[in-house]
Amino acid sequence: MGLLDIITGKYVDPTHFKSVHESGNIITTTVDAVVNWGRKSSIWPFPFGTACCAIEFMAFTGSHYDVARFGSEVLRFSPRQADLLLVAGTIVDKMGPILKTIYDQMPEPKWVVSMGVCASTGGFYRSYHTMQGIDEIIPVDVYVPGCPPTPESLLAALMKIQERIKSGDQAKRPQGEHRVGARAEGVNDRRERREAWAHDDASRASTGLDPRGRIHFKLTEERDESGNGSHHA
Amino acid sequence: MPSMIAMERDHALAKPAYRILAEKLGEKILRGTDYRGDLAITVDRSAWKEAARTLRDHPELDYKLFLDLCGVDYLNDESRPDRFEVALHLYSVTHKHHIRLKTALPEKRPVCDTLVDVYKGANWFEREAFDLYGIVFTGHPNLTRILTHEDFVGHPMRKDFATGKRFVNKKAKEWLLTVPKGSEHLVLNIGPSHPAMHGCFRVQALLDGETIKDAEAEIGYLHRNFEKMAEERTYWQIIPYTDRLNYCSAFINGHGWALAVEKLLGVAAPPRAEAIRVILSEFSRIMDHLVCISTNVVDLGAITPFFVVFRAREEIYDLLDSVCGARLTVSYVRIGGVAQDVPDDFDARCRKTMGWIREVAEQLENLLTRNIIFARRFKDVGTFSKEDALSYGWVGPCLRGSGIGYDIRKDHPYSGYDLYDFDVPVGSVGDCYDRYLVRVEEIKQSLRIIDQALSKLPQGPFITDDRKVALPPKSEVYSDIESLMNHFKLVYDGILAAPGEVYGYVEGANGELGYYIVSDGKKHPARVKVRPPCYNIYQAYPQMIKGTMLADAVAMIGGLNVIAGELDR
């Protein structure tokens, strides 16, 4: 925590006025660094809670885990006033456009936490109406595993977001854009899955590719004493 | 086994429902069975509405409580001439009896009469059957998709619909209501992402000033296909899915599922397991009521009760954590028992948690019950009559708030609830305040039950030793060849239930949670239908808020305790 004093090359904390005075009363830095330093401890989350994860999210804001310690207790239910979108719970295809709208309505800069496996990958709902990860439609900065994640892991995610804010990182594009509406895989019984694999192998073979997962072992060439490859001999 | 079928039929024939229907409909009654104590009557589709009306109106039957209506697809069943079936579940509060009424529909033209004018609650259920199975109900006022989105093609619960097939929803449905031309009323959209809408419900209200003139609700924003997934899972593998139905009281769902499957299989859990189930169910009920009350008042602007209550919730979480290692989604129940025995200090932990709950409940009552602001926001708000409550199929604290003392734990005791002494609180007016008081009282009654169950917690095994249902202990698997084989067969084949269908039900935290299971003898159930208490309750919500103030609508929704996971499944 702190700002980089480029003269001494050390981090100084502007709240410790004394040290600032001693190093010449002046700190040289960028505006971004100061703003990000301030921003990371005053995140205003928008809780997009839909399912079970929202209950654990409530525990996260409740008295026991007390998110106020991280300066994020000001929950905003208007996307216009929030800078962290916390997606807690399964997002189904019907909810997709609404989530996208809310993300678009948030002012820049904004960060997204995908809480729980359902929001991250669809979880164990591999079916006709469940979005297989919110990164199909919006960018995600931090994924939190768990079904539902414990409040501790959500706190860890919040700290990760703080790190990202400090270093100026922000996810810009939906990572899973290419698979919007793709068939939820892994739902079929073994026989069907094998058929799908066989189909995949055949289509790869027709383009001259090997089946997925085949590892080619590279043989090390025999070397003669001069260090050249044996085929030169 | 022909003799068995004959016996079932004889049982069914002896029931008054069968006799009266037979007098009335004659040839149109096709079949009556009494499998595992469930009376099921199949009628011809031309007599569908008349049969339902007779069941409701005949004084000897009085099946006034509408429970559930669903479609079933028998694509793979060669013995049936017709592919689809519609199953209706009803309950008679006066005679304390469940009934299932069925009718078969052909694949080519799956059409039957609507029951909307017989039971108000049938409306959304018929829309759901249309959405998921493509069954058409003639005379239905608004037969449109309800759970899936507008860009969806096909009927996903049909057996020939691939589970993973998805469609992209490009645009959210914007208008649920139409504004009359020339009127100056304002249409206000509330939800699905709104703090008062607890998850993802959506209501559109037509406002005249602050008064709601008309309202329409939309659901399906959490339709994550529990029922379709269940058709591809074994009876065990479904347990974690049930946890995520009503996630405020996850254990009760698993309890209900285990009881329903045990009913289907005809096995029973040992007394110790049943007592453990009762204790944890009651803790879950308390947890659910606490969340319901606290989030309800958060909507009204009081945040203190939320912080007070979550202290007790954390204690219950810790207890569940010590029992099974999970806080919220416990997956602790097993078919025929529970996953493992409780820890040695279970009794002490429970008593400590109960101390916390007592303290918190007292604080909660001091903060709310006589609080004048709270009382004014709650008294005479959202009054719902007995008749409407039954017709919509309300159950649980909401039905009891409306003055009908139907509690499954008392009327159809399961898991040994008849061993414990407790009272069922009943409201007198049926408003939000009554529902609140019922919940507060139920917390106290649950503590009573836990206290008694703890003091007579029996010793013995925690899971049945039926090797077709429960896995043998690991020590035996490693030392005994027979146990090893049992283990292998059970893991590989799963539990195999005989062909048949049952409706198992428990008193969930917000009402009768039922599972209608159809087995075709394979390791996966052929059909699982959850009878979600919230579905009926939320269906009545747009009717309730018509004519009230907008702020009262917010006060009402929290007290109904609608849980999205269970509503949309």
Low-confidence regions of chain A: 15-19
Large-scale geometry of chain A: globular
Distance between the termini of chain B: 36 Å
Gap from first CA to last CA of chain A:
63 Å
Q: What is the overall pLDDT average of chain B? A: 87
Question: What is the CATH superfamily label of the largest domain in chain B?
Answer: Cytochrome-c3 Hydrogenase, chain B
Radius of gyration of chain B: 24 Å
CATH class group of the largest domain in chain A: Alpha Beta
Give a quick summary of the entry:
The complex is a heterodimer of chains A (233) and B (569). Chain A has helices spanning 17-22, 31-39, 52-61, 96-105, 116-121, 151-167, 190-206, and strands spanning 3-5, 10-12, 45-49, 84-88, 111-115, 142-144.
Provide a descriptive summary of the structure in words.
The complex is a heterodimer of chains A (233) and B (569). By secondary structure, chain A is an alpha/beta fold. Chain A has helices at residues 17-22, 31-39, 52-61, 96-105, 116-121, 151-167, 190-206; strands at 3-5, 10-12, 45-49, 84-88, 111-115, 142-144. Chain A has a 4-stranded parallel β-sheet. In chain A, helix 3 (52-61) crosses helix 6 (151-167). The radius of gyration of chain A is 25 Å and the shape is globular. Chain B has 20 helices and 15 strands. In chain B, strand 4 (84-92) and strand 5 (97-105) form a beta hairpin. With 569 residues, chain B is α+β, with helices and mostly antiparallel strands. Chain B has helices at 2-14, 16-25, 48-57, 122-133, 226-230, 239-243, 250-265, 271-299, 304-324, 346-368, 372-378, 386-392, 396-401, 408-411, 432-455, 474-479, 481-493, 533-545, 550-560, 564-568, and strands at 29-35, 38-43, 65-73, 84-92, 97-105, 111-113, 136-138, 186-190, 202-208, 211-218, 333-334, 337-338, 500-508, 511-519, 527-531. The longest helix of chain B is centred in the middle third of the chain and has 29 residues, at 271-299. Chains A and B meet through helix 3 and helix 4 of A and helix 6, helix 9 and helix 20 of B.
